[in-house]
Amino acid sequence: xxxxxxxxxxxxxxxxxxxxxxxxxxxxxxxxxxxxxxxxxxxxxxxxxxxxxxxxxxxxxxxxxxxxxxxxxxxxxxxxxxxxxxxxxxxxxxxxxxxxxxxxxxxxxxxxxxxxxxxxxxxxxxxxxxxxxxxxx
Length: 137
What we know:
- By secondary structure, the chain is α+β, with helices and mostly antiparallel strands.
- The chain has one domain.
- It has 5 helices and 6 strands.
- The strands form 2 sheets. Strands 2-1-5-6 form a 4-stranded mixed β-sheet.
- A hairpin with a 2-residue loop joins strand 3 and strand 4 (62-63).
């Protein structure tokens, strides 16, 4: 993420994924066959297409439809996925500020009275503010 424009800040969704390898040749096996990894999805800038990812996919810090999200993750990774879970939204201060402003401008769409209510309803307590030096690649 170091090369992207940081004018509206940076953020990414973090997921834990458990997948398995299934060789497609008879008589071939692998050990271990099950792996766990971390999947990062860049958060779209507030107000731009895709910025409502959190609203469309999360509920109280969990995946709203884990089976559907598992299927999507299988397509992205091209391996059989056993499970996927949401870990957190990693964000810098600038992105969080922009996100809060866009939520405030659209509170009626969230059926909420406050920005904090929206963030809690969809992200739970799974927001972690990080500095640029904390971004892990």
